[in-house]
Fold:
Amino acid sequence: MPKTAPPAPPTLSTRANAAMLGVALGDALGATLEFMTPAEIRHQYGLHHEITGGGWLRLKPGQITDDTGMMLALSAAILQNDGQVIPLACAKAFDGWMRNRPVDIGNTVRRGIVHFRLSGQAAVQPSIEAAGNGALMRCLPVALATFGADEAATMAAWQAQAHVTHNNALSDLSGTLFMRLVHAALAGANKRQLLHEIAHPFAKAHPEFVFRPKRRDYPSGYVVDTVQAVLQAFFDTDTFDECLVEVVNRGGDADTTGAIAGMLAGAHYGMGAIPARWLKQLDPAIYARCAVEGEKLLPRSQLQ
Ligand code: MN
Ligand code: MN
Structure:
C-alpha cells in the first residue's frame, strides 16, 4: 500500500465557494495595479503577490471593487428568487448596488443602470460599444445557478443578467465560453480537457478570441483583451496563486482580469489551493459571504 493516499479531489460545493472567493481575491489583488503598465508595476512593486490595497482607488488592504460588488448583488438576486435569474431582479439588484455608492463603476454599467431607472426596462438595446468586460466580471452566480442545465437555458440566464448593462455579441460570446469553462471545471474536468475540448474549439469558431501565441499584456476593459489575458494566465500556470499573480501583473484592467481568472482557477483548483494568507488579507465581510454563497447558488438537484 502507498504510504500516502493522493489528496481527494475537491467537492462540487467547495469548488463553487472557491470560485466565489477567487473572484474577490483576484479583484482585491489586482485593484492595486489597475491601469498600470507591466513596466510601471515592475518598477514600483517588483512582482505584486500580496493583497495590499492602494492603487488609484486608494483601497484598504483586502477591499474589493465593482467586480465583486456586482457579483454579490447578482448572487443575492438569484438566491432571493430560488435560483432563477430574472432580468428585473438583476436590474433592481444592480440599481441597489449603485445606490450604495460603490468605490468604482464602469461607464457602460452606469449607463445601463440609469437606463433602467428611467425606463423601468431591465435590458439595454444592442450596442457595438458595449463590448467591455462588465457582464463577464460578475457572471459567476449565473454559472453556479445553471450548473447541470443545457446551454440554451444557461445562456438565457446569462442574458438576463448581462443585458441589463451589456447587450453585445462579443460580451455574450465571452459568456458562452466562460459558462462552458466554469461548468466543466466544477464537474472536475482537467486542464487538458478545458483547453482542447472547450477553449481552443471556441477560439477556432470565434477567431477574435484566439489566445495563442501572441501574449496579451496590459489588457484593456475590452472583453476580447480580457479573455485572452485570462486564458493565457490560466493555461500557462499550474496553481491558483500563480494564475492570479500572472494575470494581475500584466496591469491594465488588473482587478477585472484577476476576478475572472479567480473564478475559473477557484472552480478548477478548489478551496484547498487558495493561499491561507490571502484569505486572511481579504475583507472579512466579503470572505464570510463568498465562503458560503457558492454552494447555496448550486441547484439542490446537483448536490449529491
Ligand atoms: Mn473593479
Ligand atoms: Mn476593472
Notes: Residues 12-46+59-299 form a domain with the ADP-ribosylglycohydrolase fold fold (CATH 1.10.4080.10). Residues 191 and 235 are 7 Å apart (CA to CA). The mean pLDDT is 97. Residues 34, 253, 255-256 surround manganese (II) ion (ligand 2) (CB under 6 Å).
